[in-house]
User: What shape does this take?
Amino acid sequence: MNPWFAKAVILIATAAMIVIRAPHGRKSRTVKVVKSGKGHLEVFLLTLAWIAFLVPILWISTSWLAFAERPLYLLPLLVGSVLLMFSLWLFHRSHVDLGANWSVTLELREAHRLVTEGVYRHVRHPMYLAFLLYGLGQAIVIPNWVSGPSYAVAMALLFALRLGPEEALMREHFKGEYDAYEARTKKLIPGVW
Ligand code: SAH
Assistant: This one.
């Protein structure tokens, strides 16, 4: 199949990501930060996430990654597109449920509330699950061995390195409330882990 089918899917998904995040990004700048956990590790992870987000745009707009091209087939294109759509829905729901408590990095906001409802009732990290599924969707849709898995690899690293500090920050602030939430929910996959 012509790779432009995959390029169109990725362009739409990327635009959807930006449209979903934009209003929350704007709103979060108006809510005061009372505690920041943004150290060197966070700066590294945020830079990595940006690079991984932009690699597919490079693949679409230049021929720099042409050496890693592979053929595109209909079934992976469809399966990957469904995964991307589901991940975008989950990304949107997580943002809505987290509301003003969301930060792009590790932070506690003024009047920070522990969210345990909506998609947060099923797992403690639905937004990271959305990112991992988005990465998996891209890996399946993009017929390129470099650009395809780049987002999934970056998100797996972000997840592995940020989860511990994030849960520690939540536990330290919300104490027993977080312990109880932790006791009744899984991290990422409902009922499994
Ligand atoms: N890990 C979550 C949230 C990602 S956004 C998810 O994957 O859905 C990261 C910010 O969300 C962190 O700064 C943290 O302070 C905040 N946060 C994480 N879980 C939260 C929760 N259950 N309630 C309120 N804030 C939360």
The helical segments are 4-28, 40-61, 74-98, 126-141, 147-174, 176-184. The chain has a mean pLDDT of 95. The chain has one domain: 4-18+31-184. The two ends are 38 Å apart (CA to CA).
